[in-house]
Amino acid sequence: MAFKNEYLAKVYDKVCARNPGETEFLQAVEEVLESLEPVVEKDKSYETNGIIDRIVEPERFIQFRVSWVDDNGNVQVNRGFRCQFNSAIGPYKGGLRLHPSVCASVIKFLGFEQIFKNSLTGLPMGGGKGGSDFDPKGKSDGEVMRFCQSFMTELSKHIGADTDVPAGDIGTGAREIGYMFGQYKRLRNEFTGVLTGKGLSYGGSLARTEATGYGVCYFTEEMMKCMKNESFEGKTVVISGSGNVAIYATQKATELGGKVVALSDSNGYVYDKNGINLDVVKQIKEVERGRIKEYCDRVEGAEYHEGCSGIWTIPCDIALPCATQNELDGDAAATLIKNGVIAVAEGANMPSTPDAIEKFLEAGVMFGPAKAANAGGVATSGLEMSQNSERLSWTFEEVDAKLKDIMVNIFHNSYNASKDYDHEGNLVVGANIAGFLKVADAMKWQGVSY
Length: 450
Ligand code: NDP
Ligand code: 2IT
What we know:
Layout: H1 6-18, H2 23-35, H3 37-42, H4 45-48, H5 51-55, E1 60-69, E2 75-86, E3 92-98, H6 104-120, E4 126-132, H7 141-155, E5 164-167, H8 174-188, H9 208-228, E6 236-240, H10 244-255, E7 259-264, E8 268-271, H11 278-287, H12 295-298, E9 303-306, E10 318-321, H13 330-338, E11 343-345, H14 354-362, E12 366-368, H15 370-373, H16 376-390, H17 396-420, H18 427-446
Parallel strand pairs: 3-4, 3-5, 6-7, 6-10, 10-11, 11-12
Antiparallel strand pairs: 1-2, 2-4, 7-8, 8-9
The site of NADPH dihydro-nicotinamide-adenine-dinucleotide phosphate has 24 residues, from helix 10.
């Protein structure tokens, strides 16, 4: 991409030179800088204050060794990361990903996106992300616990309830957060809200488990209502993934009147023309930690197909990619469009490739980008932090109502920004700009000291 604006072109060239081979990070930066073109053209103070130069460079990037002993008594070594990207509007906040594909590029792209997403929530949270190339799949509880304890032994030196508050992401759920919280408390002798996504008996918030998936659907419902007077009612929905986000997106989409006909994991996808039976999925994924393939052994008429990308060939009205980055490419987008998709909203982070996004926008498909559509998870983490600070717990209904409000506001703020900057209806541009403006303003007021 050639930037028309010279300042953006110069910054982007420097980011490429400084972060060679970090394809995911460069992809995320390029998209945001492209969106900011009308903003930096209109107001030169972003350039004179070096805002773009600074916002693309993490404030701090920590990489560390994580050694632990497996069940056979062998020493294992993984690599741990925490990227503290931007603290202009609040303590660093963002999840911890445990997956073999985790590397500096993945953590930096996620941390970078988190800055704008957290800003969109309207809550005081900066952007951060962390994780490890540890693979929890196939490990015993004891192995996961020893890994988490070792990981936290180093991470604890860099985080705190007012400094940096990690949470879950791929491979990090309630079990992992519990082990990490226990270790932090042991090391610091301090019971604070240093992590979110905690269990309900030790400071977790009701509705945090459901929040990302529910939030994606609240956002999508508002987007469809306002842009095309549409809703989930009577629609066929395809959702990729079958983890935390996919499960609760399935639940809410169904409650709102949609029929979810497919889910997937990294091996393949299931198609159930009668509508996914979520109790069966929850039993397989949440209780047994099994594979989505097993759904077909338990539900008559359901089909299993090897390979996860084939899920986008299923005709649907609404597609919600909720698995991982770059899982939906240009070809998949073309197939979805040909089959009549009207709305796509990203539950995962950066699941659509730039080519796919371009195709959706060109075809007039309503498109909810990740930073806006999946912000419900971190927003509810922010609500968990508030409850921890006041040492009170709110009811499920209270948290859920606040979540819904936040998602509706994120849609309108993104839409309005897209209109103000002459890209009406382009929510990629709108969300990037709306998220950016608040952070940039805070950076200006705080000076150039970091
Ligand atoms: P989980 O670990 O609960 O589930 C991840 C799901 O995605 C699994 O079904 C997994 O399948 C699948 N998956 C992972 N990697 C791949 C891959 N390379 N190819 C195909 N499928 C894959 O994670 P979450 O549901 O929490 O996260 C899903 C997405 O949502 C991520 O992009 C995450 O960053 C994003 N997100 C999560 C939030 C949260 O609150 N949890 C908040 C906002 C965004 P398998 O079991 O085979 O690996
Ligand atoms: O990508 C994300 O927003 C998350 N994984 C949730 C982060 C959080 O702090 O709840």
